[in-house]
Specification:
disordered C terminus, SPX_dom, 8 helices, 69% helix, mainly alpha, SPX domain-containing protein, 237 residues, SPX_prot
Length: 237
């Protein structure tokens, strides 16, 4: 699949309030084909896009940190109330579990947001260099690697932490796990809920990070996700 189509589909699959935060890939591609192309204008637009990515990413990251602490406090209070008798608080446990799954999904979406915008920048710069026979891509990408939106270590760590928390604090039986999986897959098929968005993001990340004949120093490293992982609403290695 060509990248222009991929990013268009990913924007459509993203959360509605995120859709104007992605790279304006088509506009930049059309500019490269324009007879009036000037490097100063092109670089100015790219810098504006990076500023947009950084502002959105940092805002989301800060919200995640706050939500992370709030969920931890809720779990702590619940554990203190439940003790060893969780039957009395089954509904509250189920509600917190759903909140964690949604939180996990949003964080996966943000990692994908970083990946797809970085990949888009690398590809549009490659087209620019081919059109102008210049060498803008390498130094510009070196700058991108130090931008806040590219640094997903914190969010990725939170993703892993919440997977561990789910397994440790809210272990589910085989029946419950299958019921949750079926409900999530049904929601995805119906096109509702964050699960559908998360699966689309995972598929995109897997595709972008898959080794191929076009792999280069500007490509993201391969992502090791099996197909079975894509059917689970919470587990992402």
């Amino acid at each position: 699949m060509k990248f222009g189509k991929r990013i268009k589909e990913q924007i459509q699959e993203s959360l509605p309030e995120w859709r104007d935060k992605f790279l304006r890939y088509k506009e930049l591609k059309n500019l490269i084909s324009s007879p009036a192309l000037a490097e100063s204008i092109f670089v100015g637009l790219l810098n504006a896009e990076i500023d947009k990515f950084n502002a959105f990413f940092v805002e989301q990251e800060e919200d995640f940190i706050i939500h992370h602490k709030e969920l931890q406090s809720r779990i702590q209070r619940l554990v203190e109330k439940c003790g060893h008798n969780d039957e009395m608080f089954r509904e509250e446990i189920s509600e917190i579990r759903k909140d964690i799954v949604n939180f996990h999904g949003e964080m996966v979406l943000l990692v994908n947001y970083s990946n797809i915008n970085y990949t888009g920048l690398a590809k549009i710069l490659k087209k620019y260099d081919k059109r102008t026979r210049g060498g803008l891509r390498s130094p510009f990408i070196q700058k991108v690697l130090h931008q806040p939106f590219f640094k997903t270590d914190l969010v990725s760590r939170l993703v892993r932490e919440w997977e561990t928390t789910m397994d440790a604090v809210f272990p589910v039986t085989v029946v419950e796990a299958e019921a949750e999986r079926c409900a999530a897959v049904t929601s995805a098929a119906a096109g509702v809920g964050i699960f559908r968005n998360t699966v689309a993001a995972l598929l995109t990340m897997k595709e972008m990070r898959r080794g191929s004949s076009t792999y280069s120093a500007f490509s993201l490293p391969p992502l090791n996700i099996s197909d079975s992982d894509l059917s689970s609403p919470i587990h992402i290695p």
